[in-house]
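Continuing from the previous page...

OK, I double-checked the sequence for Kinase against my notes and this is the correct one:
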Amino acid sequence: MSPAELFLAVDGGNSKTDVVLADSDGRVHGYVRGPGSCPQVIGLDTAVALLDRLIGAALRAAEMPPSVPIARAEVYLSGLDLPEEVEAAAKAVAPTGWARSYRLDNDTFALMRAGTDSPDAIAVVCGAGINCVGRSADGRTARFPALGPISGDWGGGLHLASLVMWHAARAEDGRGPATALAGAVAAHFGQATVNDVITGLHLGSLGQDRMIGLSEVLFAAAGQGDAVARRVVARQATEITSLVTVAADRLGLREEPYAVVLGGGVLRARHPLLQDAVAAGVKAHSSKARLTVLAQPPVVGAGLFALDALGAAPAAAAALRSALEEARPLDQR
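Thanks. Re-ran it with the corrected sequence; updated structure tokens here:
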């Protein structure tokens, strides 16, 4: 029996980065968490330097020297949306010496692999933004640029928050229909009126970081029957469904029992209006599709990709899932 080989699994998003040092038997030796490593936000060189620091921290947590041989590094980062971005990141990582071999790609692939072992699968992440990727058993992939409105995207937490503000402002000043969102927005920010919120956000007395919480305000209002909020939620469901069904058609999966993995904060919250509409829309297109909401951290998927690449036994995947279910990362932020 050959000795276990070490690997690195990395999942880097806008707000946090998880790095796992584990082996081909599924044992976790080091698990650390640092700040966001999206190259589009902090720059590619800064992102690589941050990953290098976190990998060093994972090695120290495992009480292993920097020179220990590592067979594989699977690195999945937010912001690697275009092939050119993936290629540039791969070139930047190649000289680091982190491992003998590497794979880099968008973090939505890690989310997909964490959620299913099926070779036919599609993942949608709806967090701050929105993205979708898919794969088929024959190795083909489907993906979208995911660059926001310029690439045809609609939705995600930040976009939903801006729509909440838009509808609340117009309801208060009379340009739009009445909606419970107006009072809910003022209450969310602890202000008397939506206009007070607008002024505070513009002048800086209210933090922009509180905007993301408005997506929860939206779903609360929709759940209570507000017509304006329900229309926005319905549109978000339609967009998510469209991503899944278009990816499925590109991959020829419409009649196949493919997996659909849903993740990101908006979908992870399992709001019934959104979840039920997405499920109904996907099933109307692909009756055999199986939907699941990811519960484990996406870094699990990066680790499973490493085990796949190393030809590990199926028991190793189960061991890795179990280990990361119980493990808590050392905070390096």
